[in-house]
Specification:
- By secondary structure, this protein is an alpha+beta fold.
- Among the domains are: 22-57; 59-105, SH3 type barrels.
- It has two helices and five strands, in the order ααβββββ.
- Strands 4-3-2-1-5 form a five-stranded antiparallel sheet, covered by helices on one side.
- Strand 1 (62-66) and strand 2 (71-77) form a beta hairpin.
- The longest helix has 38 residues, at 19-56.
- It starts with a helix and ends in a 16-residue tail after the last strand.
Length: 121
Amino acid sequence: MFPFATDAFAMGLGGGEGSGGAMLQFLPFVLIFLIFWFLIIRPQQKKAKAHRELMGDLRKGDEVKTDSGIHGTITRLADDFVTLEISHKVPIRIDRGRIVERTSSKREAPPKHIDENGGED
């Protein structure tokens, strides 16, 4: 079908390239992987880490927002579920992983230590 294909292939082989040619052939794959790493994989890992930290730091009294846009105050925490009060005496139970953001926290601030001279530490 292509009578000159073998001749053209033989002429393009360049016998003196050695292993440098093989490394240059893999260079585009390495560059594509690095682009994917910095543009897709790494930001997703950072986002997942921040979400895990948020889930571990939730406390009763925190005001949160869910992925469906519901805002409420945490009234009860369990391992898998959270009870939110979205209005006065209107609780709902949702999956803990559906919380995407803490809007404010009503936790008590730790007491400040005051030394004997009246100054704060």
